[in-house]
């Protein structure tokens, strides 16, 4: 007896877990970053380094994915990961209080908290994607990926709006109360979402000879020997590196050059993610209107999204030059739209490739691509923040420094688009429509 594939309700419930992950991570990587840089005048490299570290911890994603491939259930990995993530986010507030008091223990506490955040995201996120890839029918995998990522963006947007409205007027105790409340709510939502969805494995579970389930090293070598998987891994790394350069500097950009308050800049981050949501919806609707969704058609959307992202970054270069007269909110919304088009197209291709060869390798494939994304986010966010610090120190002009950083980011998006054009993904056959 085998388990029935997940229906749409089950997919949406797992999407709630992704929403909770997005909500918690947004607090640590966006809101706390702004507070450290603007309210406490800490070097931008400090929160950037912490965020980079939490991504570095996620390099172990392939190990967790491979472990869940070999196990009978993925739900315990998700629950443990969410609990670890929640604890890390709340702990980061305590570390912030020590950092504000210029205590060395603040740095130690922050590193430990962000280690937990990275471990939690890796364990929960990789296991969630592997569960989707194994329990969702092949013809629904791309749609399931889009639904869960849209729900993640919704979680980020809602959290940005709520937290932004509640933390003004700013104080550390007020921030602690808001973050704790959001984290507790997100954890409960995740538990309600995952509870009972996976179901019990058929009993008894037959023993599997180790020869039929290769070790981690052998499974990784097998995957990376595939040209399409290797090329897609390279694209994921480069495109996400470009995307992540803006992650830690957009809110300081709004605060330093446009005079936004913490609440206003947090809400501006919500505008960005609302644009991302719109881009994801645009791809879904556009793909349905044009015709059958293929890996090749996803490639067209990927290239268009990368090119449009570069164009919107040119707009931010002009914003840095012109100052408050520039329509910043509209520019950020358009940037988010372009980012969403590129991101959900890449996710659709990723889910289509994850189970391409069968053999219960979805976990390690999603783990490798997740690790590539994590490394790119770690390096991209760190380089963006370090570039900001170095530029302000060497050039002496905040606006010109932002212009240079945004220009580098735009160039990387152009290179990513060129790579996608030159490296088409194998398997342009139509993805079957959902039953």
Classify the helix fraction into a percent range.
Answer: over 70%
Give the CATH class: Mainly Alpha
Q: Which H/E pattern describes the elements? A: HHHHHHHHHHHHHHH
State the assembly state of the protein chains.
single chain
Distance between the termini: 22 Å
Tertiary shape: globular
Largest sheet: none
Question: What's the Cα radius of gyration?
Answer: 21 Å
Q: Enter the CATH topology name.
A: Growth Hormone, Chain: A
- Which residues sit in consecutive blocks of at least 5 with pLDDT less than 50? 203-211, 289-293, 423-435
In CATH, the homologous superfamily goes by the name MFS general substrate transporter like domains
- Report the β-strand fraction as a percent range: under 5%
Query: Judging by the overall fold, what is the CATH architecture?
Result: Up-down Bundle
Number of helices: 15
Query: Structural class of the helix and strand makeup?
Result: mainly alpha
Average pLDDT reading: 82
Number of domains: 1
Record field, number of beta strands: 0
Summarize the helices and strands and which ones pair or pack:
Elements: H1 8-39, H2 45-57, H3 61-70, H4 75-100, H5 104-135, H6 141-166, H7 172-194, H8 216-224, H9 227-244, H10 250-258, H11 262-290, H12 295-322, H13 328-354, H14 362-394, H15 398-422
Helix pairs in contact: 1-2, 1-4, 1-5, 1-6, 1-7, 1-10, 1-11, 2-5, 2-14, 3-5, 3-14, 4-5, 4-7, 5-14, 6-11, 6-13, 9-13, 9-14, 9-15, 10-11, 11-13, 12-13, 12-15, 14-15
